[in-house]
Design a protein that fits this description.
The structure holds two protein chains of two kinds. By secondary structure, chain A is an all-alpha fold. Chain A contains 15 helices and no strands. Chain A is globular and about 50 Å long. Chain B is mainly β. Helices cover 0% and strands 33% of the residues of chain B. The radius of gyration of chain B is 12 Å and the shape is globular. The chains are: A mainly alpha, B mainly beta.
């Protein structure tokens, strides 16, 4: 995957350094971080979210021509920590009412977690995609989702070594299913890539990085934030539970949209698999993972709700962006510089 | 070969073995681990391809015996 195009002072400096075009200067980097953090809304800030995404990606697949040693470079980690503090504070601010309600609700932890999901409300694109979206709009949705789905399950895998055994075992059980249950051709990320390719889209990891807005990157960054911090293991698992619990029914509607539009069968296969898989995963995640984690570490309950709320909040932000653009007759993707990079 | 019923009167069963673990979820499906197949009321065996499966307990799944989330959109308290 190529390094992306910069979106501001910070990503510009970071990308120059990683590409070997500039030397890392702590004072320059520090100034660039402070400039980026002046933003009112770190979730919507393109420079902040792209910078975070690039820094996190050093832990995942890396970039062409970028030395893997940058992953643990202390100055980059310091910059990332400052961005994360700002990002996490905003996420906690937005999640607070949902966390408070869930913490005060009746019932065991899984019930309260499912209750948080059911009570969330917020805009949703599922019915629009099922009944009204054009083929181009459906494909734009796939482009936004490709940022996460092409590494589906990886951000939650970070939590495996951080959990007590009774929660670790069901997490591995769930992830084993995500990774194809022993069959590489059934790995969920691969099924998604097959769907992209069948639609004439690019199946390569990171292909659409430049075209998605910061809020789409933020959706992925929140998962990485939770997964890469032991401190946030409760949030990582709450996020997973909410992700799974908001999949099965919507995926049925997406299959309906695929059939209505006559999109390739490979796309239906992806969503169809998720109707069945996520009906299992939501129960395992809420009960066997989150339930047992909080039974052993009760102080993590609020973070579990926090992670779940963040999942829903980020989905709602994406939905609002997509619906706003599409109802205005516009593309939801960033303008590209060359015609052949645009969605067909 | 003893068969273990799942979810009341829907007719889904699994072969009872030492490996089988059955966990009903409140207001939801029955989680089954260790099965190789689940048999429906018509006697058809559905192969298990996941480490854990969710067997429909509400009777309204369109993908029986597997849960497809329909229980979430039907009123509770049958």
């Amino acid at each position: 995957m190529q390094l992306p195009s910069p979106r501001g002072v910070l990503s510009s400096h970071l990308i120059d350094v990683l590409a070997g075009n500039a030397r890392l200067q702590p004072s320059t980097l520090g100034n660039a971080v402070r400039t980026a953090m002046v933003s009112d809304d770190p979730i919507a800030d393109e420079d902040v979210q792209l910078s975070l995404w690039v820094l996190y990606e050093l832990h995942y697949r890396g970039f062409d021509g970028v030395d893997d040693r940058w992953e643990w470079e202390p100055h980059l980690l310091k910059a990332r920590r400052e961005l994360e503090e700002c990002f996490e504070a905003e996420l906690r601010r937005r999640a607070r009412p949902h966390v408070t309600n869930a913490a005060m609700a009746e019932g065991d932890l899984p019930e309260r977690l499912f209750g948080l999901v059911d009570d969330f409300g917020g805009p949703s694109i599922t019915s629009y995609l099922q009944r009204e979206a054009t083929a181009d709009q459906f494909k734009e949705m796939l482009v936004h989702r490709s940022i996460y789905q092409l590494k589906e399950a990886d951000p939650h895998s970070w939590a495996i070594p951080r959990l007590p055994d009774l929660a670790k075992v069901p997490l591995v059980e769930l992830q084993y299913d995500e990774y194809g249950a022993g069959r590489p051709e059934r790995q969920h990320a691969k099924l998604f890539a097959d769907g992209l390719e069948a639609c004439g889209l690019d199946r390569e990891y990171g292909a659409y990085l430049d075209q998605v807005p910061g809020s789409t990157l933020a959706l992925s960054n929140a998962m990485s934030l939770f997964g890469l911090h032991r401190r946030l293991r409760g949030a990582a698992m709450g996020h997973l539970a909410a992700l799974e619990a908001t999949s099965s029914l919507p995926c049925r509607k997406y299959v309906g949209g695929v059939r209505r539009l006559g999109l390739p069968e490979e796309v239906a296969v992806y969503f169809d698999e998720h109707v069945e898989a996520d009906a299992v995963h939501e129960q395992v995640a809420a009960r066997d993972i989150c339930g047992t984690l909080v039974a052993q570490e009760p102080h993590l309950a609020e973070d579990v709700f926090f992670g779940a709320a963040v999942c829903l909040i980020m989905d709602a932000i994406l939905a609002e962006h997509l619906l706003g653009c599409w109802q205005g007759g516009q593309s939801s993707l960033r303008p590209t510089t060359t015609a052949d990079e645009a969605v067909a | 070969m003893t068969r273990l019923p799942l979810a009341g009167d829907l007719g889904f069963t699994v072969e009872q073995t030492d490996e089988i673990d059955v966990r009903p979820c409140a207001h939801g499906p029955v989680l089954v681990r260790g099965a190789t197949s689940v048999r429906d009321a018509d006697g058809e065996d559905h192969p298990v391809t996941r480490p854990v499966v969710a067997v429909c307990a509400c009777g309204k799944s369109q993908r029986g015996p597997w849960c497809d989330g329909t229980h979430k959109v039907i009123p509770r308290g049958r």
